[in-house]
Amino acid sequence: MLILSVESSCDETAVAVVKDGREVLCDCIASQVELHRIYGGVVPEIASRKHIEAIYGLADQALAKANVTREDIDAIAVTYAPGLIGALLVGVNFAKAAALALDKPLIPVHHIRGHIAANYIAYPDLKPPFLCLVVSGGHTMLVDVKDYTEMEILGSTRDDAAGECFDKVARMLNMPYPGGAALDKAAKSGDEERYPLPSPKLSGNPLDMSFSGLKTAAVNLIHNTRQKGEEVAVSDLCAGFSKAVSRMLIPRTMMALDQTGYRTLAVAGGVAANSRIRADLTRECEKRGVRLCLPPLSLCGDNAAMIGAQGYYEYLSGNLADQTLNAYATKTLEGERL
């Protein structure tokens, strides 16, 4: 089954052709990073306009690269939630038009489900059930992937997402957008012990996380150091901050593995590209004899291939949409059906 998939939830316009949920024939991405860099972050209105400019040509490019025709496509999959509402609407309206024009089924895909499905591309033998740690700019959660379309959130952040905090601290340090990648690079040469940062204590669900206090502590440290007329040791702070985020994520992930009894851990989302988190997860999983599925960096960020992968399983489960499909800025991951 060939699926033409579309992703436009933030600042990457992407169109892919995916076969049977596992084989990527092509994945074309038009990045807006350079455009938004001058603003230090994504400007939603500009992102939406650029999606409109790019999406039609990108779809033709994807078909050509995959060496298929429009008639060869069996279904259209699209990210419809969550994300920037204007950006999502561009992708949804394009997908609806394509499905109508080609008389093909329309498959709505939750963005986070797509990130999880990136692991099916990277690890063709991977099958549910397994635990997935989702770490991205807007989401941080531990997900029990019971089946391809049946998932349960076991724990999540109660405030900011890990990726949002990386980007905020990087911006305070005058690093270029996207800040998370720049911070990770700087952290590799830093002394992680120079700037001790707090570990928030939470009551209630032991698998829940919190990052806002950690972010505030880092921002206050930067402000206080500069007010004293001193220079912040950028690499050292980046290393200490990365350590603190990992210290929040890793123990809870291991606890969730013990709770579920799973012996496979998948990781998904843009922050899955962070070298400190990848190294710490690798070490802990090796200790416990747990299989770790870490997608390549190309599949950690937003892409359309992951939407095509999850779209295949949504199609098999009968989760289809009609021309009334809308986009949603927020949408729950659990029990996701239209």
Strand tally is 10
Radius of gyration: 20 Å
Approximately how much beta-strand content do the residues carry? Answer: 15-25%
List the helices and strands in order. Answer: EEEHHEHEHEEEHHHHEHEHH
Roughly what percent helix? 40-55%
Structural class: alpha/beta
Distance between the termini: 22 Å
Could you walk me through the main structural features you see in this protein, from its secondary elements to its overall organization?
The chain has 338 residues and is of the alpha/beta class. It is built from eleven helices and ten strands. It has helices spanning 33-37, 44-66, 85-102, 111-122, 162-172, 179-187, 212-227, 234-260, 275-288, 297-300, 305-316; strands at 2-7, 12-19, 23-31, 75-81, 106-110, 130-135, 140-145, 151-156, 264-268, 291-293. The strands form two sheets. The chain has a five-stranded mixed sheet, with helices on both faces. The protein has a five-stranded mixed sheet with strand order 8-7-6-9-10, sandwiched between helices. Strand 9 (264-268), helix 9 (275-288) and strand 10 form a beta-alpha-beta unit. The chain is globular and about 65 Å long. The model has no long low-confidence stretch (mean pLDDT 94).
Topology:
Layout: E1 2-7, E2 12-19, E3 23-31, H1 33-37, H2 44-66, E4 75-81, H3 85-102, E5 106-110, H4 111-122, E6 130-135, E7 140-145, E8 151-156, H5 162-172, H6 179-187, H7 212-227, H8 234-260, E9 264-268, H9 275-288, E10 291-293, H10 297-300, H11 305-316
Parallel strand pairs: 1-4, 4-5, 6-9, 9-10
Antiparallel strand pairs: 1-2, 2-3, 6-7, 7-8
Helix pairs in contact: 2-3, 4-11, 5-6, 5-7, 5-8, 6-8, 8-9
